[in-house]
Amino acid sequence: MQVPRKQHRRRRLPGSSESSCIRHRAEGINHVWSYDFVVDRTEDGRQLRLLVVIDEYTRECLAIEVARSFTADDVVGVLQYLFAVRGRPTHLRSDNGPEFVAQAVRTWLDRADVQTLFIAKGSPWENGYVESFNGKPRDELLNRELFLSLEEARWVIDRWRLDYNHHRPHSALDYQAPAEFAAGCVLPASATPQPPEHSRSLNPDSLTQSGTKIGG
C-alpha cells in the first residue's frame, strides 16, 4: 500500500480580495472609512436600522444614524453631511448590500471622487473594522436596552457614540480615545471640511421623504 505524502497547509491572508481591510489598510485619517447596517427593534416590535460609519484609521465612530428604514437618498444624505463637517475619505469600504451598491449612491460617490471598496460576497471579515465595532454597541447597549420609541433610541445611541469617541481608550491607539487620537492627526489638504449648507432633518420613518425604501 502506498502511504500518501503529508500535505502542508498553506496560510492565506484573512482577506482574499483587494478590497479587504487586510490588503487595503487605512494609512491616515480620512483615508478609509467603512459603513454597515445593524438591525434592532423597539418595544412594539417595529424595526430599527442603524447606519454605522467609522474611520478605520482613528477608530472614530463618525455616525450612527437610526431610522425605521433607509433609502439610497438617505445614505447619500448621511455621507453628504459627514463630508461637509469632516472632509471626504479617499476610500469607502462596505459589503454588497443593496443600500451600498445602489446606483444613486455609487454615482454620488464617483462625483465626490471617493473610491468604493466592495468586499467579497459572504466575507464579512474583509470589513473587519466596522464588523468588530458593531459588536460593541450590540453587546453594551442594544442587548441591554428596551427602546420605547425611535426618538429614545436615537438619543441613547448617540450618547453612547459620543462616550465611545471621547472617553474610551483604545489599545490600537496607544490607549488614547479615538477623538483624542484624531485630534493629533493631520487632515489631507484635499479633505478639508467645509461648513454644512443646512442641517439634516429626521422624520420618524425615514431620513428623507424621497427615494425607494431599501430593506424596510
Describe the structure.
The chain is an alpha/beta fold. Helices cover 31% and strands 18% of the residues. The protein is globular. The C terminus is likely disordered.
Strand and helix map with partners:
Blueprint: E1 32-41, E2 47-55, E3 61-67, E4 70-71, H1 72-86, E5 91-94, H2 98-101, H3 103-111, E6 115-118, H4 128-142, H5 150-167, H6 178-183, E7 213-214
Parallel strand pairs: 1-5, 5-6
Antiparallel strand pairs: 1-2, 2-3, 4-7
Helix pairs in contact: 1-3
Task: Evaluate the radius of gyration.
Answer: 19 Å
Order of helices and strands: EEEEHEHHEHHHE
Provide the structure class: alpha/beta
What is the percent of helical residues?
A: 25-40%
Give the strand tally. Answer: 7
Identify low-pLDDT runs. Answer: 195-216
Strand content range: 15-25%
How large is the count of helical segments?
A: 6
- Give the N-terminus to C-terminus distance in angstroms: 61 Å
For the biggest β-sheet, the strand order reads 3-2-1-5-6
Query: Tell me about the biggest sheet?
Result: 5 strands, mixed
Provide the residue-averaged pLDDT. Answer: 84
Q: What's the overall geometry?
A: globular
